[in-house]
Amino acid sequence: MIRKAVFPAAGFGTRFLPATKASPKEMLPLVDMPLIQHGVEEAKAAGMRDMIIVTGRGKNAIEDHFDVSFELEAMLSKKGDSALLSSVRRVTDGADFFYVRQNLPLGLGHAVLRSMDLVGQEPFAVVLSDDVIDARVPVLKQMIRAYEKYSAGAVLAIQRVPKEAVSRYGILRGKRIANGVYDVEDMVEKPKPADAPSDLAIIGRYLLPPSIFPALMATKPGAGGEIQLTDAIRALIGTERVIGLEFQGVRYDAGTKLGFQMANIAFALKDPEIGPGLRAFLKKEKLT
Ligand code: G1P
């Protein structure tokens, strides 16, 4: 049973400035739901209950979002607006939220290490809410199936990326053991295209064993001078079985302006309320 999910959310969101000057990038909406809530809903759909959010300065809106707003609920219930009321209740239902601060910008590995006491001695998930994945079966659920089927210690979501993009990702080398499933043999964070061992990139979903924490503590700063999660997972290979899973679904890199807009358009077009209107507008104004 994987019950806990860790959400690193302490970054400055510099790519979205000035929009993120005073509000967290994790709160940028995809249609009507903040990015981080998409990740939380995915974790809930995969059976997880405890959401551990690693925050920093200026991130209070995240805590307020995942808290019950008694006044808002009372107002909506008085108005009899049951649709909006249930969308607001959904934010807090079915999960408990825990917060820990990452008060130094030392990288993704350091952010995950900050969750050590809240995670304890059990396997857990890491969700990077920048990576939005639209999937029929939630990606974390697909990963849990692989975790069980292959008795894995860790499962990484992976996707093939163009050669020129490898330097933005953790890239792995692995032995293919089934369609879309790899036994990971090595991995490297943000390699130059010439040094990349493959085109298989890690996407922001991980299932990890608690042994990642001592590995993180022993990890020296790597790419970009940061403590890299990739380096710590690499140190587990040999003692833990690390599986790479090419997931089914469409992934949007909502950490970039282009990917964020693509995700918004795709989600808006699928939205029953505004999809038809948006499609008609794009056609009328010849925007497609
Ligand atoms: C992080 C990880 C990287 C992974 C990527 C997925 O990088 O370090 O291994 O491929 O997320 O989005 P970041 O995007 O934080 O630079």
Brief overview:
With 288 residues, the chain is α/β, with parallel strands linked by helices.
Structure write-up:
The protein has 288 residues and is an alpha/beta fold. It has a single domain, classed as Alpha-Beta Complex (Spore Coat Polysaccharide Biosynthesis Protein SpsA, Chain A). Helix content is 34%, strand content 25%. The chain is built from eleven helices and 13 strands. The strands form three sheets. The protein has a nine-stranded mixed beta sheet. Helix 3 packs antiparallel against helix 4 and helix 10 crosses helix 11. The radius of gyration is 19 Å and the shape is globular. 40% of the residues are buried. The model has no long low-confidence stretch (mean pLDDT 96).
User: What percentage of amino acids are in beta strands?
Assistant: 25-35%
CATH H-level superfamily: Spore Coat Polysaccharide Biosynthesis Protein SpsA, Chain A
Overall shape: it is globular
Largest sheet: 9 strands, mixed
**Oligomerization:** single chain
Order of helices and strands: EEEHEHHHEHHEEHEEEEHHEEHH
